[in-house]
Structure formats: structure tokens, C-alpha cells
Amino acid sequence: MAPPAGALGPAPAVPIEKVLKLFTGANSQQLYDRHMSALDRLCKANASGFAIKDLPQIQQLLELTLGLISVKGMADFVQPAVTLIK
User: Fold this and answer.
1) For residue 63, which of 47, 85, 40, 45 has the smallest C-alpha distance?
2) Residues 6+ apart with CB under 8 A from 57
3) Residues 23-63 pLDDT 10s
4) Residue 41 confidence (pLDDT)
5) Which residues are CB-contacts of 3 (< 8 A; sequence separation ≥ 6)?
6) How far apart are the first and last CA of the chain?
7) Mean pLDDT computed over 4-33
8) 77 contact partners, CB below 8 Å, separation of at least 6
9) Distances in whole angstroms, Cα of residue 6 to Cα of each of 2, 3, 47
């Protein structure tokens, strides 16, 4: 039986590799709104936590996010960084 219309199901999986590529790609490094959106989707899809095997990639994402906060002064990334840690 299909869920009722408008019902929220589990968040779709978000490949961490794609989020990393979004942060580091030559054509997407400056797309900060997309970075925040991707972090938000990643955190929602992994609300119960990340697998241990994914932690090195999560560390990379956190370091990139913290770099945007400290080097570029982008305070908008504070909340996504906190959500990523939780």
C-alpha cells in the first residue's frame, strides 16, 4: 500500500562523495547556497548518525565547512557545521 499523499517518508540517501565533490570541484567551489543545501540534505538523510566507515569523509566535510567559516567569514555555515557534528 502506498503512503498517503503528502506523507513524509525517509529522506533519500545522499552520497557523501558527491557532497565532497560539490565543495571541491572547480566548477562548484563558489556555489555556497548549494553547499548549505547539500549539508542539510546529508544531515537529514543521516539523522540517526553516520556509519563509522563514513567518518573520514565527514571529517573532510567538516574541515571544508569550518574553512569557509574561518577563512571566508561565512557565518551562514555555522549552523550546518553544528548539525553535521550532532
Assistant:
1) 85
2) 16, 17, 20
3) 999 999 899 999 999 999 999 999 999 999 999 999 999 99
4) 94
5) 9
6) 34
7) 81
8) 32, 35, 36, 65, 68, 69
9) 11, 8, 21
Q: What is the pLDDT of residue 42?
A: 94
Say whether 52 sits in a helix, a strand or coil: helix
Q: Rounded to whole angstroms, how far apart are CA atoms 60 and 81? A: 12
DSSP state of 75: G
Within the chain, residue ranges assigned H as helices are: 16-24, 32-45, 55-70, 78-85
Instruction: Specify the pTM.
Output: 0.79
The cell numbers describing 1, all together, are: 500500500
pLDDT of amino acid 84: 87
Q: Which long-range contacts (CB under 8 A, 24 or more apart) does 67-70 make?
A: 68/32, 68/35
The packing angle between helices 55-70 and 32-45, to 10°, is 140
